[in-house]
Amino acid sequence: MNDSNPLSPEKRAELVAYVDGELDETATQEMERVLAESAEARHEVDMLGRTFALLDTLPRPGASDEFTAKTLATLKAEQAALPWPQRTWYRNVRRGAIAAAWLVGLALSASLGYYAANRLAPRGNTEMIRELPVIENLDAYSDVSDIRFLRELKQQPVFDDDKPNPPN
Amino acid sequence: MTTELQRVGSSSTSQLRYLRDPDVQLMLRTKAGDEAAFQELVNNYQNRLIAVFFHLVHDQEAAEDLAQEAFLRIYRSRHTYQPTAKFSTWMFRIAGNLASNSRRSKGRRREVPLNIRDSGPLGHRPEEKMIAEKSGMMPGRQLDRNEVQSVVQAALNELSDRQRMALLLHKFEGMSYADIGESMEMSAAAVKSLLSRARENLRERLEKYVR
Questions:
Q1: Structural domain of B170
Q2: What is the pLDDT of residue B211?
Q3: Do the domain assignments include residue A166?
Q4: Which is higher by pLDDT, B162 or A137?
Q5: Of A51, B84, B111, B131, which residue is most buried, by most CB within 10 angstroms?
Q6: Are B182 and B140 in contact (CB under 8 A)?
Q7: Does residue A13 sit within a domain?
Q8: Which domain holds residue A113?
Q9: Would you write out chain B's pLDDT as a tens digit for each of its 211 residues?
Q10: Residues B196, A23: contact at Cβ < 8 Å?
């Protein structure tokens, strides 16, 4: 760029971005080289900066004293006018109720599962414990052919401790 | 609150960087039902919002009404809020949309603010013209602060709505091109071009006052 060539819109945009500190390092160096060579570019940067600085003279009116209170009151009035499903407290209560229902459901499921596992489903150990006396005497029972023989044997006085043994 | 942060954090890593913004934290607390957090947001941003709106609509009362509506919209949208941008960027996006809607509802009528003292038997005249005439009659005359303000305000009013909004966000809010782009839903390159045209227009209108 030299002073005989007017600034293109692209170069002007680059100049503005340079003034605003929005160019990367390479583009900044390139712009500084251009500025060193072009009086027009330097004048442009100067004018851009000075006219932009004039915006500092603009008033910046703030909020009136009652703005916060008025805004919050409007918000509360709006909330009060809302149907129940859209109110904050209703949403919180509903959310809590749903969470509580889930917890109760989970606890019930767990209890039912425990009961079913303990009471309804057959357990191998229970049966073994019930049959323990048989298991303990399994060898003796194996020697007996059947139950009728045992009953007949029981009726024989030979195992009756109160009666004297018959003479051989 | 912690659960909310954990949920947000796990849902998107891109959101994590915005969680460091204290105003994003306030908005998340508002989402969790903390009304004191929302009041803090109102206190933090009311002056900034009103200042921007004032230069868009040229009326203090209208600016306050728009700012109030912006805060109400923010509060209404708390349930669906996700920290996908800095809070200020998100808020000024809402403000920009609100200002556009307001202008549309007024039929895009351009208003030139005038002081009572400018009225005369011949009716109102734009301030810029009056000051230029006064200055022309007295070469070398220094404009006082009020006159400079009027000239600058008139120059600002001559910009398009989008140029003005971008310029106000850049000047008053110190926003980067990227943040302005997010607020105005345009690319950083488009912001660069928009601000360049705005600054050039401003320079053309105000150059004679800074020589």
A1: 124-210
A2: 66
A3: no
A4: B162
A5: A51
A6: no
A7: yes
A8: 81-120
A9: 455 545 544 456 667 778 888 999 999 999 998 999 999 999 999 999 999 999 998 889 999 999 999 999 999 999 899 998 999 999 999 999 999 888 777 764 444 443 433 433 343 444 444 444 444 444 445 667 788 888 999 999 999 999 999 999 999 999 999 999 999 999 999 999 999 999 999 999 998 888 6
A10: no
3-state per-residue secondary structure call for A108-145: HHHHHHHHHHHHHCCCHHHHHHHCHHHHHCHHHHHCCC
Q: Look at residue B118 and tell me if it is in a domain.
A: no
Last residue of a domain, one of B54, B74, B105: B105
Do B9 and B66 reside in the same domain of the chain?
yes
The B-side interface with A (CB below 8 A) comprises 33, 35, 38-39, 42-43, 46-47, 50-51, 54-55, 60, 63-64, 67-68, 71-72, 75, 79, 145, 148-149, 152-153, 156, 167, 170-172, 176-177, 192-193, 195-196, 199-200, 202-203, 206-207, 209-210
Which stretch of A41-55, A70-84, B49-63, B160-174 has the lowest confidence by average pLDDT? A70-84
Amino acid at A166: P
Does residue A53 sit within a domain? yes
Give me the numbers of helices (H) and strands (E) for chain A, helices first please.
9, 0
Q: What's the domain count of chain B?
A: 2
Residue B22's pLDDT is what?
Answer: 93
Residue B139 lies in a domain: yes
Domain count along chain A: 2
CATH number of the domain residue B192 falls in:
1.10.10.10
d(CA A44, CA A54): 16
- CA distances from residue A122 to A108, A114, A117, A127, B6 in whole angstroms, order as listed: 22, 13, 8, 8, 45
Kindly state whether residue B71 falls inside one of the protein's structural domains.
yes
Interface mutation vs chain A, best among B167, B180, B202, B203, most A CBs within 10 Å: B203
Do residues B36 and B128 share a domain? no
The answer as to whether B110 is a domain residue is no
CA angle B86, B89, B94 (to 5 degrees): 130
**Run of H or E residues at A53:** helix A39-53
Residues A49 and A85 in one domain: no
Same domain, B27 and B98: yes
